[in-house]
Amino acid sequence: MQRARRVFALMTFMFWSSLYVYLPVLGPQAERLGAPLSLVGLIISSYGFTQLFLRIPLGMWSDRIGRRKPFIMSAFVIAAISGFGLWSAKNARYMLLYRGLGGAAASAWVVFTVLFCSYFPPDKAGQALGLITATTYSAEMASTLAGGFLADKYGWGAPFFCSGLLALVGLALSSVVKEKPQPQSSISLLDMASMGKNKRLLSVSLIGVLSQCIVFVTLYGFTPVYAARLGASAMQLGFLSATAFVTMAAASLIGGTFWAQRFGESRVVIGGLLVVSCCSLLMPFINELPFLYAIQALSGFGRGLILPSLMSMSIQGVPDARKGTAMGFFQATYALGMFAGPALSGMISEVIGLRGIFLCTGGLGLVTALGAQRLLRSPIEAGIEERI
């Protein structure tokens, strides 16, 4: 089992590397090709747009046939097309199309997480998700650092070409991943609608939407654009993204394996939201790159606390045969934030400017933290609070 986990972790590393190696230069490259901020926002949000519509059907389909591996292999094929397509794009509109394909590949993450959890006992789901999320952030850290180096040394198209190559390596690894036989599920759209009435799942998903909106506007979206306007080189943009992913990986391990057990998952989520929000509010007052690195590191730590706990909460108490559907519901719902946040912010920024967007996003984060305080507490966590 340990060998299966290691192979899966390496495959996951390649998967997210292929989707994030070009992230430091995605927004700046779109600007270089003549895109206004509104189109830059759409390019960033297209990644979430396709996930919004694909994650629930993928989760249901994988539950229905009791298989995960074919979806994972297909995701690598699509990721390769996305990477090579972005590399060959001659204008920003083509970038919109191929980044959307990257989102289609990322839709399979629902299947990745459920399959990896099957390698652990049911009561260790939080630990499993903490470990796989740490692997994800480690991949994103290493790949964005490499992407900045590649763009600086070989040109702005190099990270996109590397994305396609990494996806092909991941495809080879995915062919040897072990999959336990799973019972087929006869879940229907009616059952799906019933799952959507689960108040706990809806609450977790709502907080997921808002948290992803904040993160994709700032950390993944307009922070690199802001840094480029401060004079950051391609290499410095890579370091900027990598700084966040280092702290994300650390936070996901600490939050998912220790703090969640000690303080409760909802408290970990709220703490992460407060950190991310404060970083966004501080961003407009940063005029030097060293301070921007510090803010980025703190924001990454906050983001690393949020997602593993939310994912774990989304499948608590769900039968194995329907965990793919539940995770798909959660991930598809939070993809709304990945899409709507950058898209709307890109349009609004034409009026209030880039600094105004960071202030508005920080305010949204504080409101989300208040909402999480009311919506996410469970009876178990209430008991934890009494013991503290």
SSE topology:
Blueprint: H1 2-20, H2 23-32, H3 37-65, H4 69-88, H5 92-106, H6 109-117, H7 125-154, H8 158-174, H9 189-195, H10 199-229, H11 234-263, H12 265-282, H13 289-314, H14 323-375, H15 379-387
Helix pairs in contact: 1-7, 1-8, 2-3, 2-10, 3-5, 3-14, 4-5, 4-8, 6-14, 7-8, 7-11, 7-13, 10-11, 10-12, 10-13, 10-14, 11-12, 11-13, 12-13, 12-14
Characterization of the model:
The chain has a single domain (2-173, 197-387), classed as Growth Hormone, Chain: A (Up-down Bundle). It is 83% helix and 0% strand. The model is unreliable at 379-388 (pLDDT under 50). The chain has helices at 2-20, 23-32, 37-65, 69-88, 92-106, 109-117, 125-154, 158-174, 189-195, 199-229, 234-263, 265-282, 289-314, 323-375, 379-387. It is mostly helical and 388 residues long.
The count of DSSP E runs of length 2 or more, i.e. the number of strands, is: 0
| CATH topology label | Growth Hormone, Chain: A
Could you say what the CATH architecture is? Answer: Up-down Bundle
The fraction of residues in strands falls at: under 5%
Q: Helix share of residues?
A: over 70%
* Number of spatially distinct domains: 1
Count of helix runs: 15
- Class inferred from helices and paired strands: mainly alpha
CATH superfamily: MFS general substrate transporter like domains
Name the overall outline: globular
Low-confidence stretches: 379-388
Largest sheet: none
The overall pLDDT, averaged over residues, is 82
Question: What is the H/E order?
Answer: HHHHHHHHHHHHHHH
- CATH classification class: Mainly Alpha
Task: Indicate the radius of gyration in whole angstroms.
Answer: 19 Å
Distance between the termini: 36 Å
